[in-house]
Write a structure and sequence with these properties.
Blueprint: H1 2-8, H2 28-32, H3 42-48, H4 74-81, H5 100-113, E1 117-121, H6 124-135, E2 141-145, H7 150-164, E3 167-171, H8 176-182, E4 188-194, H9 206-215, E5 219-223, E6 240-244, E7 258-262, H10 264-270, H11 277-281, H12 287-294, H13 300-320, E8 325-326, H14 336-342, E9 352-356, H15 360-372, E10 378-379, E11 389-392, H16 403-409, E12 415-419, H17 426-439
Parallel strand pairs: 2-3, 2-4, 4-5, 5-6, 10-11
Antiparallel strand pairs: 1-7, 6-7, 8-9, 9-12, 11-12
Helix pairs in contact: 3-5, 5-12
Modified residues (N6-(pyridoxal phosphate)lysine): 247
Cofactor: pyridoxal 5'-phosphate
Keywords: Pyridoxal phosphate
C-alpha cells in the first residue's frame, strides 16, 4: 500500500532541504487566512478545517501509538529523509518528528488561530522556549512585556542570558513609545507579550504593536493562553501564537500540552535536522494526549462563553459590594474598549478575573473561606478548569519575579487570580462567593 502511495506522489513535493517539511493541503484552513483580520469566527474556522476520520471510518480520530513507521521499499526511506516524501502525503518516519494524530491536532490549532501551520508540543513552556530559541540566535535581543507568566519571565531574565547570551528588555506594552524605543532595528529579533497578561489582565494592542515591530523587522510572538476563541492574534498582525493547551483548551486540568501556531516556513525551520529546535530538543507531544485534546477543541467555544459570562457577572457584583476587582469586561477597566475592538464577537471578555485584597494575609484569608467554608472554588494554580481555581499570584505563579519586578508589573501582594469555572448554577456559585465575602467584614 505504501508502495502505491510512493508512485502516486513521486514528484508532487519539492525537496525543501530540511528533510521533514510540513505542508498543509490546499484546504479551507489556508483560505481563511486571507479573510479580513479579526473577522473570522474561530468556531467557523474549525468547522471548515479538514475533517479527520478514524482508521476504519470512525467519527473519532485514531490514535497512532507507534514511534516508528515501516516502509515497503528501502528506497522510500531514503526519499523521506531527503524531504522528497513527507507527512503531508502520509509518509512518516518517527514520532519525534511528526505523528499522524499529533498532526491532526496541529491542523485544528492552525484553524483555530488562523495560521498556515501549527506544531503541538509537550507543554506550553516547550512551545515558548522552542520558538524563542529558533528565532533568536546567541547574543540576540528580545523586547518583552514586563507582565508575563513567571516561568516565561524566568526564561527570559535568567536562563537565556546564561546559556546563550540572549538578553531581554522588559517594557510596559501599554506604553507604545517605550516599546518602539526598546526595539533596535537589526538587533532585536522578537517582540514577545501575552494577549491578556498573567495575572494583571492587561490587554495588548496587537495590531499597533505588530505594526511597530514589523516596521523594524521584528517578529511578533504572542502567548494567547488566556484568550483562545476570544482573540485571534495572527488575524490581528502577530506572526506566531503560542499556547499552553493545559489551560482552557484542555479544560480538564489533566493534560500538560502546548502549541506553536505560525507559518509553514517557521514550522519547517523548527523541524530542520541540523538547526531545528523542535527536532533537536524533542518537546514531543504524546499521541494519546493529542487525541484527547482533539475531542475537546470542538466545544472550546461553548466553554469560553460560559467562563466569560460567569466571570463578568461575578466581577460586576463584587464591584458593587465595594471590592477592588480587575476584569477587562468592566467598563472602568483601562483596556475595556480595546478588548472590545479586537475580540471575536460573542465569546465575552475572558474567564479570569482578579481581586486585589491589598495584602497576602487578607488574600489567603478570603481564599481559605472560599475553599474550606463555602466551597466556592479550589486553591490551586492553573486556569481553564470547570471548577473555579484561585491563587495569590505574587507568592505562586509570579513568584519568579523579584519585588521590584512585581511592582513594575503591577502585581499587588494581595492580588488573587481567579479562573472562574462553570459547575453548578450561576446563582448557586454566587451565593457561595457572597457568603465568603460577607465573612470578610472588614472588606465589605
Amino acid at each position: 500500500m505504501i508502495t502505491d502511495q510512493v508512485k502516486a506522489h513521486d514528484t508532487s513535493l519539492p525537496c525543501k532541504n530540511n528533510n521533514f517539511s510540513y505542508d498543509t493541503k490546499p484546504t479551507s484552513i489556508t483560505r481563511l487566512t486571507s479573510w479580513p483580520m479579526g473577522k473570522v469566527d474561530p468556531a467557523a474556522a474549525l468547522a471548515m478545517a479538514r475533517p479527520e476520520f478514524g482508521e476504519h471510518g470512525g467519527v473519532n480520530l485514531s490514535i497512532e501509538n507507534s514511534i516508528t513507521f515501516t516502509v515497503m521499499e528501502a528506497e522510500t526511506m531514503r526519499r523521506m529523509f531527503e524531504g522528497e516524501l513527507g507527512p503531508e502525503r502520509d509518509f512518516f518516519i518517527y514520532s519525534r518528528h511528526f505523528n499522524p494524530t499529533v498532526m491532526a491536532l496541529s491542523r485544528q490549532m492552525a484553524a483555530l488561530e488562523g495560521t498556515e501551520a501549527a506544531y503541538c508540543t509537550s507543554s506550553g513552556m516547550a512551545a515558548v522556549s522552542s520558538v524563542l530559541l529558533q528565532l533568536v540566535s546567541s547574543g540576540g535581543h528580545i523586547v518583552a512585556s514586563r507582565t508575563l507568566y513567571g516561568g516565561t519571565h524566568a526564561l527570559l531574565s535568567h536562563f537565556l542570558p546564561r546559556v546563550s547570551k540572549i538578553t531581554t528588555t522588559f517594557v510596559d506594552v501599554r506604553n507604545h513609545e517605550m516599546v518602539r524605543d526598546a526595539m533596535v532595528e537589526g538587533k532585536t529579533k522578537v517582540l514577545y507579550f501575552e494577549t491578556v497578561a498573567n495575572p494583571t489582565l492587561t490587554v495588548a494592542n496587537i495590531p499597533e504593536l505588530s505594526r511597530m515591530a514589523h516596521e523594524k523587522g521584528v517578529t511578533v510572538v504572542v502567548d494567547n493562553t488566556f484568550s483562545p476563541m476570544i482573540i485571534s492574534p495572527a488575524r490581528l498582525g502577530a506572526d506566531v501564537v503560542v499556547h499552553s493547551c493545559s489551560k482552557f483548551i484542555s479544560g480538564g486540568a489533566d493534560i500538560i500540552a502546548g502549541a506553536v501556531c505560525g507559518s509553514k516556513d517557521l514550522v519547517n525551520s523548527m523541524m530542520d535536522l541540523h538547526q531545528g529546535t523542535l527536532m533537536l530538543l524533542g518537546p514531543t507531544m504524546n499521541a494519546k494526549v493529542a487525541s484527547e485534546l482533539s475531542q475537546r477543541i470542538p466545544h472550546l467555544g461553548l466553554r469560553m462563553k460560559e467562563h466569560s459570562n460567569r466571570a463578568l457577572v461575578f466581577a460586576q457584583r463584587m464591584k458593587n459590594l465595594g471590592l477592588k476587582v480587575i476584569y477587562p469586561g468592566l467598563n472602568d477597566h483601562p483596556d475595556h474598549q480595546l478588548l472590545g475592538s479586537i475580540a471575536n464577537k460573542d465569546y465575552g471578555y475572558g474567564g479570569v478575573l482578579c481581586i486585589d485584597m491589598g495584602t497576602e494575609e487578607r488574600a489567603n484569608r478570603l481564599m481559605n473561606l472560599l475553599q474550606n467554608h463555602t466551597h466556592f472554588g479550589l486553591m490551586a494554580v492553573s486556569l481553564g478548569f470547570f471548577e473555579t481555581l484561585m491563587s495569590c499570584s505574587g507568592s505562586s505563579t509570579s513568584s519568579e519575579l523579584n519585588g521590584e519586578e512585581k511592582e513594575l508589573a503591577g502585581i499587588s501582594p494581595g492580588l488573587i487570580r481567579m479562573s472562574v469555572g462553570y459547575v453548578g448554577t450561576l446563582e448557586q456559585k454566587w451565593s457561595q462567593l457572597e457568603k465568603a465575602l460577607l465573612k470578610m467584614k472588614d472588606v465589605v
